[in-house]
Amino acid sequence: MKLRQLFAALVFGFTASLAQAEIPWTFQPLPAEPPIPADNPQTDAKITLGKQLFFDPRLSITGTHSCNSCHNLAAGGEDGRAQPVGVYGRKGRRSTLTIWNAAYHTIHNWDGSARTLEEQNQGHLLDPNIMGMPDARQLVDRFSSIPAYRAEFKTVFGKEGVSLENIARALASFERTLITHNSAFDRFLAGDKRAISTQAQHGFEDFIEVGCASCHFWVNLAGPQPGLAMQQGEGFYELFPNHPGTDYESRYHLADDIGRYDFSQVKTDIRMWRVPSLRNIEITAPYFHNGSVKTLAEAVQVMAKAQLKYELSQQQVDDIVAYLHTLTGRFPTITVPRLPETSNRTAVAGHDD
Amino acid sequence: MKLRQLFAALVFGFTASLAQAEIPWTFQPLPAEPPIPADNPQTDAKITLGKQLFFDPRLSITGTHSCNSCHNLAAGGEDGRAQPVGVYGRKGRRSTLTIWNAAYHTIHNWDGSARTLEEQNQGHLLDPNIMGMPDARQLVDRFSSIPAYRAEFKTVFGKEGVSLENIARALASFERTLITHNSAFDRFLAGDKRAISTQAQHGFEDFIEVGCASCHFWVNLAGPQPGLAMQQGEGFYELFPNHPGTDYESRYHLADDIGRYDFSQVKTDIRMWRVPSLRNIEITAPYFHNGSVKTLAEAVQVMAKAQLKYELSQQQVDDIVAYLHTLTGRFPTITVPRLPETSNRTAVAGHDD
Question: Can you tell me the distance from the alpha carbon of B247 to that of B241, in angstroms, rounded to the nearest whole number?
């Protein structure tokens, strides 16, 4: 038994080949419902409102960008780009993370700078490179000027009505419905051994043995999460690159961005990054925080080398990629909402030229 | 009888108040189906493909803009801005026209520079300020590299497969389903006299008497259209401003843009503009080719003065606005399509940073 296998056996109680062994308990199918915070319960009216807001470009100062502009629900919940383009053609700092299954994360953004979807939404709305709203006041004034929105906010949030916090809450409630369960891997975990190919099963074995599964585990393949058995505080971070000085590091500028440190100013956070989910990873290229790696096969090799100091064979790469393909879930059908209209006038007046 | 009423009586056979008279035959409910060109018949597969393309930001060079980015189907089929924002933060030249019911137009774009939806689509794809595709080749290469699209194009268009023309054709087929019939005014025209308020009926009378109906008539309130009884050649243009030198002209820079002339280089086309539809006009502010007028009431006054040399009373403005509100139709339910994915890689590679 190789050392790596021994490690896997210790961590995951995994010794024989997958066909005979139990699947490690650290892998579980994605539940149909994500954790719902006590201070923002789901209601139908709130989800409806959140969906309208998600598709509403008036959330951006210029009226040009909705959440869906970058978190494209017709696709992988992101934009297929290295860096997003926000208002005024400005670039976002890091590659867009998918909104699909984001509801299962302990932490949001690459640097964990938001602890909840609500926080993440607020941050993006006020980010000058994304939605560009200069302050909560302008956002609230604009949405309060749209009668049907005003009425909806009152129904959902009572007297408090339209506020930055309530916009973020409604958005988060809708985002908690953006779940892609029932992937082939989920069906495999649930007992259907034929749900994934033999090659994908080999890939899953490699994924565990090589060490990918040390971070990419649990229901969202992104480490532990809150409200569930494996809670581990405020989030799950890893050093990246873990093994400095690889060719990949310079080729893809992996160490240029200082990661969570820039946000926290805590020295131990230098180049610490949240562990991203691998669900739907097949359709969310390009990869990494800077979107520098264009293909999934290359991303797998970079991770093995820079994180685990492991040189994968071509066969292993192919197998792991085949496994990763099984993480693409079933996407819910979403109807395009009708947005509350401002009769006779534009709500972005003053920011529309 | 005022001269204007006499004119209306001559043109529309309209003498008494609306309550007693027949509604002028030049007003007809919007048919459920628009004219379909013989060389681009509707098929379910083509409409499905066109819908995917309509929502696909990969049609833009940067992967940031879909047709829906500016022609927002969650709203009035446009962007609520004076000028659209295309790729690289570039501004489009003129205010976005709604895509709803565009299928009924004889001519497209403010200057009539496209005679069909197919032509319009091609133009927008290659416009450096809109989708920014440098040439057909890059567009075709990109979409040919997406296996599911390649297969769909083959099914729909046979051997010809992916081409600029076929992308434009599929888009046009989907756009021909974007119809908002059954507005209150349509129900009124169909015989339900209670479908619109008394104020709106007064507004409709004013609309005819004042002269708005001289251009804004027929099913799309945009003048005659092809394939129907009132065909009048290649399109329907009017001089704007018709009465030069008004205060409005300078305040809203109405005469700065030279209109169709810039496209046709024909002297008689100086400041000639296509007559835009008034359907859903309530929700498509700001108004005019330069989006300079922020409210519908102001737009009505500008039109009366600059086109008809007529000073409307406040009551007339209110009544006409009430009438224009009855032109907001019923919007079809549209599901967000699933876009064909590029497994493992991004299709916008090379244009994504």
Answer: 11
| pLDDT over 70 at B15, yes or no | no
Between strands B237-239 and B272-274, the pairing is: antiparallel
Q: Which two tokens stand for residue A262?
A: 């820039």
In one letter, which amino acid is B286? P
pLDDT tens profile A320-348? 999 999 999 999 999 999 999 988 888 88
Closest CA to B169 of B344, B325, B45: B45
Contact A352 B291 (CB under 8 A): yes
Of B81, B285, B343, the CB nearest to A344: B285
**Closest residue to A331, CB basis, from B62, B79, B338:** B338
pLDDT digit string (tens) for B82-104? 999 999 999 999 999 999 999 99
Label residue A236 by pLDDT band (50, 70, 90).
confident
Q: What is the pTM of this model?
A: 0.93
Q: Which helix (H) or strand (E) holds A239?
A: strand A237-239
- SS3 assignment for B32-94: CCCCCCCCCCCCHHHHHHHHHHHCCHHHCCCCCCCHHHHCCCCCCCCCCCCCCECHHHCECCC
Burial class (CB in 10 A: 0-12, 13-18, 19+), A191: exposed
B109 CA to chain A: closest CA distance, Å? 19
pLDDT tens digits, residue range B68-83? 999 999 999 999 999 9
Distance CA A170, CA A149 (A): 12
Closest C-alpha among B32, B36, B15 to residue B24: B15
User: Which residue from B178, B212, B210 is spatially nearest to B280, judged by alpha carbons?
Assistant: B178
A238, β-bridge pairs: A273
